User: Fold XRCC4 N-terminal domain-containing protein from Takifugu bimaculatus.
Amino acid sequence: MHQTSVRPVHVPSEPDSSYFLRVDWSGRGLGCGFELLLTDGQNAWRGDVSEAAVCREAEELEMQPERYIQDLQQALTGTEKSTNYSFVLTPSPPNSSSAVTLAYEKVQRDISFRMGSVAAESRPRANGGSEGVTGPQSPEGKRFGMPQQQT
Assistant:
């Protein structure tokens, strides 16, 4: 079973930019690995996180895998509003031709800890710009979704 989530992402170092995060996964959940697509409506970056990487992050944080995967799902899909999650994007600001790293953190009582990160590659177009991004519009009028297939 394939699942997809799209959510707005606030990046504190980029207060004037709007980002959207699409997460795609199959199987039992994010613990089986997932693909991320980050877009600002003009540019798109895609990265993959393997099942082994999810297990490694849980182990490094000394968390039970089930609890880590639950927190990961809350952070990346926005399914839970009671816990605060934060995102860090490097380099800041990104450009259309650069790879970026999106780190996700959990914030509790003014203390944050890094849950993980994903390296995402720019999705270039044949004409030199970033790949077109299509899909529903954000409140700011930007479009988000999966990049168009090049033919």
Observations:
- The CA atoms of residues 27 and 43 lie 29 Å apart.
- DSSP finds two helices and seven strands in the chain.
